[in-house]
Write a structure and sequence with these properties.
Blueprint: H1 8-11, E1 19-27, H2 32-45, E2 49-56, E3 64-72, E4 86-89, H3 92-98, E5 107-111, E6 122-126, H4 128-134, H5 141-153, H6 158-168, H7 174-199
Parallel strand pairs: 1-4, 4-5, 5-6
Antiparallel strand pairs: 1-3, 2-3
Helix pairs in contact: 2-6, 4-5, 5-7
Length: about 210
């Protein structure tokens, strides 16, 4: 699919949902809030309506943290994510804190270090932290995860994420973060292809424009 940004609602025209709730969770210090903010910025650049909220656990730096983002073709009627459509989880403690919130229709994207499987919905398990580390950017697990999410769901354009990164990341750290995003895109594309080969349908086809 060409990575052209325009009317964001056009990207979802063939989808079944008016709005999508995304929950990004990890430890404090893993850049969870930044990931949510970048996704929200990209959604706005793609002409979608966006709401982003965040919360920390009591330990702040070491506790579980989450950022919720709602992306919608229309105005967001209710600005809370009670049960996410997509759950991107970077750490075991965040999974323990927020993994019970998924539903039968949810898709979970889990780092391979997370033990256990969601009690509902479907899951894609990918080596987010290892990919970031192998790419020389161990601090960018969150950005690898963002790349996987975009590759699988096409919720925003790749271009808009790259522009959000360029706008929010310090210049000396930007090249590593862009490489981490590209690595996540490749990882997500492979995961989606493997899932399609296994069961004959897209991983999260309800959201992808044809």
């Amino acid at each position: 699919m060409p990575d052209e940004r325009g009317d964001g609602s056009a990207r979802w025209r063939k989808g079944q949902r008016e709005a999508v709730g995304v929950r990004i969770a990890g430890r404090g210090g893993q850049g969870v809030m930044l990931s949510g903010y970048l996704l929200a910025l990209a959604g706005m650049a793609d002409a979608l309506h966006v709401v982003q909220t965040q919360s920390y656990g009591p330990e702040a730096r070491l506790g579980a943290a989450k950022s919720d983002v709602i992306l919608s073709r229309d105005e967001v009627a209710y600005p809370e994510v009670s049960s996410p459509d997509i759950f991107l989880c970077l750490s075991q403690d965040a999974y323990s804190a927020y993994g019970t919130g998924v539903s039968e229709s949810s898709l979970s994207i889990l780092d391979s270090r997370v033990e256990g499987a969601p009690g509902a919905g479907s899951a894609i398990v990918v080596p987010l932290a290892a990919t970031a580390r192998d790419g020389g950017a161990p601090f960018a697990t969150n950005i690898v995860g963002l790349g996987v999410l975009v590759a699988i769901t096409a919720l925003t354009s790749e271009r808009s994420i790259r522009e959000a990164l360029t706008a929010r990341i310090k210049p000396d750290s930007l090249p590593a973060n862009l490489r981490a995003f590209d690595a996540g895109l490749a990882l997500g594309a492979k995961a989606a292809a493997d899932q399609l080969a296994g069961n004959g349908r897209p991983v999260f086809g309800r959201l992808r424009a044809g």
